[in-house]
Each structure stands twice: as structure tokens, then as C-alpha cells.
Predict the 3D structure of the following.
Amino acid sequence: MRKELHDLELIDLYLDHKMSESEKKDFEKLLSESESLRQALEDQISLRKGIQRIALKGEIKSAKNGGKGNNLFNTIGFILVFLIVSILFLFTPEDEEKSIYSSTVTSIDEVEENQETPQDQETEPKQSIGNTDKQIAQKERENEIEQFLSQYDEMESVNLDSIDYGDTIDWIVYESFDAEEQVFSFKNSEGGKIEGKQGTILFFPKNAFDIEGNIKIRLKEYYSPADIVLSGLSTTSAGKWIETRGMIDVKAFSNGQELKLKKEVYFPIAFPKEGYPSLSAVKTFYGNKTEQGLDWEVDSTYFFLPCPGVSEYDAYGGMVWNKKLKYIQTYMSDFCFTRKQVAMISGKLVYPDATIDFKVKKGELLEYIISTDYDYFKPILEGYISKMDKGLLLEENKTYNLKLEVTPPGGLQAKKQSLSMLCLDDKETLRNAQNLLMSHYILSSYRLNIINCDAYVGGTSTVKEQTFKSTKDCSISVIPFEKNTYLVAEGSKDEDFSVNVLDGKLYHAIAYQRIGVDQYAVSVKRFRPKEEAIVFNDFSVMTKKALSKKINKLKRYKE
Amino acid sequence: MTQDQIIQQIQLGNREWAFKELYNYFPKVEHLILQSGGSKDDASDIFQEALILLFRKLQKEDFVLTSSVETYLYSICRFMCYDRNRASAKQVDWKVSLDLREEEEITELFQEEEKYQLAETALKTLGEKCMEILKMFYHQGVKMAEIATKMKFSSAKIAKNQKYKCLEKAKKKFVELRTESN
């Protein structure tokens, strides 16, 4: 059922022209290769047109009954009916009145029950839609889990005759796997744009480092569940769950020495969206290694971005941008909306609901794209429509009006918002930037090393400690069934392992250990939190490729 | 309302208003149908169908109306009446007042619509709540979360799954009907 549902969703997106160019191309390729998908598309077109027919007929009927010539007849008809009903009401005994109406009224439930086919009655209990939502939801959930897990259960392990399974595995502990290191270089005075193999793009501005000469960047990317798990990465921030859309580890070197970015330099990072559903409210998180493991620290420093020329800055955030840019540069700012909230444009303060005039000088800023994720904070440049779909070519020495509009008026000290400003040189870059904004999350960072593109996981649930026992030295990762969050159980074979999980949820726990060049001992359990420890005592051996495939399937990641 | 206004209203989604205006042409169509041996019900059905085909025509990206809306509508009705009479072996004499391209186009529209009529028949076997979900989603463009609230589902996901089940049921019936008609 999952595949058919997924295909249907794709078909609907295609028919509604909601796919990007590349998505459309990929889908059309799939269509050309699959007869069944083509047929499914044709059927869906017909069914949608059929639904349209039924709806249109309803509209036509309403139009017909509301037409000029019919109004008089309707009115007379209504009066007659009213008179008849009144007469009946006055002169008909109660019992007969009931019998007139009860025989003509049919409940929706009755209609639905009558229309259920015998096949429906075999597979599902006879019930009206909406009456037992909880039961339906529960059944849906169970079916979904079963469907999903049935594909997971197909093991792909290596049949190594020379190695026994279980207790007799030759348990030699190898160094844990890490992602491939990619190396790039650029001149510090020119800045550089780096594109990782998995789609990450980093934009280093000119003179981001305090040295002369070439900069060597070493980049590792972690997107797939397998990469994240097998590298021992987790996604919690001060005990809170965060959901990831990708992590990187980026280091800069010059002449063998590791470098740090200059103070107050931010560089944008574009994390590709492909592979997972789109996530809103993503932020930059920095990885800090602690005694308890990896913890993610949210980047809140751009609350306090310096605003040159402003001595008093009574606000929680702001933005500054450089006019002389050769490539995409974003400055992110989180706003708490109060009347005191300000923004800075070209050195001037702009209050919400106010406007600012500014001019462009030749050779400087040519185009703006202003984008915002949230509807009630809109920067409006005259003649420009926000939401990334247009750019406005600014003319030299013409005065423009830029307004920051907050709705409702006065602002709300409620949610934090973010604003991206893209400053570009030419139309081609503009087009590329628009495409990039559609395909990537664009964040900024003032630090190197491990950086995560995440959003906090909402909702409330009781936290419970789940313990694990293992008969072998291994690492244990715990993956919630739903969110793209990763937990690492702390502990060891001798002291037991434990991890804090949310009660009632479904998880997979993966105990693994690299025991050869391309051999992993693995044991996977699925569980809901319980009092007793979960024991790993039945390991299988498989290659890294097979294990990666298995882990990726747990999150239904694109292969 | 002028012809252009009618077309604009249909394209903007303000269809009921436009259909109400177009019903001014119904008496002429009714007269035609009755004259050719049809009934008042036939006339209503044909005119309704003609409005649907007009809607389809206006939805096409490359649509061009060389005749007036009234003429086009009338021609569709005439075509359908002819088609019905041909089926019942009644002889009627027709005058052609459309250009050949438009005549061919109506034939094409009509043939395409037959498939969708079959889908409509299949969909009508669904329960009222199924149809409500499908109409809200596909015709009115209502988001799943709102459908979930209106139909009292516990979540948008449940509503989505229900929509899928309704569609699958209709599709099964549609395939059956299509096989039978082939």
C-alpha cells in the first residue's frame, strides 16, 4: 500500500505542476520506464476529471435553480410547500406526522453501510467513517508499521562460511567508520564556493581567514541514516531532540595548520533538501564533544550581530549585509516581534510598519531577493513580490522604498522568524539562487567543525530511560520510527547501556561493531520503551554496504 | 455579462455565476432537443453536459474560441443530440455553422469526456463521505489538515489515507467498467 500511496502522491504533484524541473524530469523518466505508472497516471487523470464532473454538476444545478426564470417558480413552490406542511402540522395527529417524515429520512451512516461491498466487510469491521477514528488510526498505524517492517525483514547478510554466528564470531574491534573526506582549496583573498558530493554547498567570503595565500578545506558529509549512525553521531541539544536534515564536518588548513574563521565572519551553508520531507524552522547547530557524548548547540549569536553606526540597539536580532558581494551571502536573524524590533538596511534603522528609502550606486548592489519563511513578516520592496519567485533589478540613483511589514500591526512577541537576504550580481546568478533556495536549506555559520542543519522536535511526551545489555563490545544507536532524530546509548558491555527516549514511541535499536575491513557484526531490535533491559545477544555479520542499506531502510531514505 | 466576462468568471473559478448566465441560452437548446424528438429531461442532461465540455475547453492552455460562447455551446448540444439520435436511429437534418476545426474539436472533447463519464459512474458507487473528501481535496483544493477537521478525522494523515482508500475503491470500479465497455 505504501508504494501505491507514494506513487499517487507523486502523480498528484505532477498533475498539479508542483514539481521542480528536476523532479519533473525524474518523474517523466520513471513514466517512460514503467507501464504500470503510466496507467496509474491515466487512471488518476480520469478519476480527477470524474470528481470534477460530479462537482461541476452540483454547481450547474445550483446555478440552474438560482436562475432568473426559476426564482418565481421556486418562490411559489416554497409557499405551496409551506402551506401544505402547515396544514399537515395543524390537522395531522402526532403519530401520522412522524410516519410521514421518518420514512423519507435516510442517515448518512445508513447510506454508507448500504454501499459497502462484501469485500470491505471482510477486511474491515463494518463501521462508519469518522465514528471510530481512534480505531481506524490504530489500525492504520499497525498496518503501516507492518508494511514497513516487512521490507526491513529481508536481511542481506554475507554468508561467510568461515565465520560462525552468535557467540563464536571472531570479535576483533576495528576503528569505527567515518565519512569520506573531501578536499578543496581556494585563495583566501578571493573566497571560495565548495560543493560536496552529497550536495552541500559552502560559500566562503573573501578574507574569511586571517592569513595570506591558499586555504585547504576538508569536508565530510553525513546525510543518510547509515552515515549518521555508523559515524556515531546523534541529534540532541541540551537533552532536547532535534531533527536533522544533514550534518557536515568542515575544517580549514593552511600550511598544515588548522585555522579558525575571523571574528564576525559568517559564511552561508546550503544543505540539500532531497531525501527527506521539507522541514521548516531549521537552524544552525554546532557539535560540541562532551563527556556524555556529542551535544548540539544552537547558533543564537546572530541575535547579537553588530550593527555598525548604531549605538543603542534595543532588539533581539538584526541583520547586516555587505553591498559588495560576488556570490550568495545570507545573514540570518531571529526576531522577536515587538515594537522595538529593528532591522538595518544600508546603515539605517527600519522599524516594523515603517519604510526606508535607499539608493543604489553603480557597481554595487544590483538585485535583491528577499525571502521569508513566514507570512506575517514581510519585507516589501516596491514592485516586488516576496517568496523568492522574483527579483527586482535596481536602477542606479533611483529611490526605493523598503518596508518591513508586520502583521498583525504592532507585531507579536511570539515566534522567532528568520530572514534571508540574497545579494547578487547578475540575472544568471539570480536564477541559480532561486533554484538553490528551492532545493536547499540555507543557513549561516560563524564556526567550523561539526555543523548540523536541524529543527527542534516539538510535542510533549514523558521521558523514559531505556537500558540495553550486550554480550559484546559494540555501539548502540537508537532511531525513533518517525522523526529523523538519532540517539546514541551511553555505556558499555560491562556497565550496560542506556538512553533517554520518549515513552510510548516505537524505536529501532542497532547494536553494531566493525570487526573486519568490511565486516560488521550487527543486531537490530525494535521496541517500545519498557522497564526491563533489551538484550543484544544474537549478532549477524554483514558488509558495510549491506548494513548501510538496512539502516537506510529504517528511515526510508532514498538509496 | 459579456462573453469575455463569462469566460473570465469560469477561468477564475466563479463558475456558478457564469453557469447562471449561460442558462439564458437553455430555452433555445431545449427547443432544439424537443424538436428533434427529445424530452425535457434530455434537454437538461444535454445542456448540463455541454456546460461541462465548455468548461473543459476553457481549461485548455491553448484554447481559442473563434465563435461566440453561445454558438459554441449550441454546437456542442447539437452534436450530442445528433449522437443520441444516431444511437436511437432517428434521422435529423443538421446545418453546420461552426468551422471544421471546431467541429473536430468538439468530437475530440466528447470522446475524451466519455472516459471521464465512466470514472464518474465509478465514483458514484462511493459513499457520501468519500465523495466529500475527494471533492474537497481535488475540486476545491482544501488542504488535508482542514479536511481532517471538517470530517472529524484525528489527523491529516488519517484523512490522507482515507482519501487514498476512497480513490482505490473508485479506481477498482473504474477499471471494471472500462474492461466491460471494451
Remarks:
- The mean pLDDT of chain B is 81.
